[in-house]
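Appendix C. Worked example: Response regulator transcription factor
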Amino acid sequence: MVSVLVADDQPLIRAGLGALIRAAPGLELAGEAEDGNDAVARASALRPEVILMDIRMPELDGVGATRRILAQPTPPRILVLTTFDLDEYVYAALRAGASGFLLKDVSAEQLIEAIKMIAAGSQLFAPSVVRRLVEAYLRTDGSGEPFPDLSGLTGREVEVLRLVATGRSNAEIAAELFIGEGTVKTHLNRLMTKLGLASRAQAVVAAYESGLVVPGRLGPTHHDAPTA
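Step 2, the predicted output written as structure tokens:
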């Protein structure tokens, strides 16, 4: 059974999501949270596997709650729910380490499948969707956070990061670089560890913010190093 915490400030939506989860095979409702602070507290106390996180809530929004929850030991995976697919809050949530996002008009069947996918370790968005978000909000969110430093990466790790950011799957990267898919995963895991990243989405964001990939241009930039 996958335990799910629902965080939404609207009682009707919260109740509806809770009822859907309780009725779904393989899912169980761990609890409900009415705002971001409540979500942080309940995530720590209830230890759900997945959190459905509303992005806009009073007191502490979904982005702030996501940051705090993912800083906890053995954190859950977070699936962001939003009204708009091009939203600066969603971009910030991806940067914070959320595992994906869904629009609130998603069907019940799609939501249930999404929760199970997230619990199994998948990312719930195509790289192209993440890229569109990054291109729309790159350097405009005003967070003041430093851009990633890629100087500690090997040439091969830089190339893998660039290809991840341009939308390639692990299999496509393996074919393009003439290496095994397992080797791609190893490079990706190592570069994510070096950069302190928790998700593939964060890797895409890092590639854009560092200047490795330029919006509208999918080819190599001056940051690329030899891959031999």
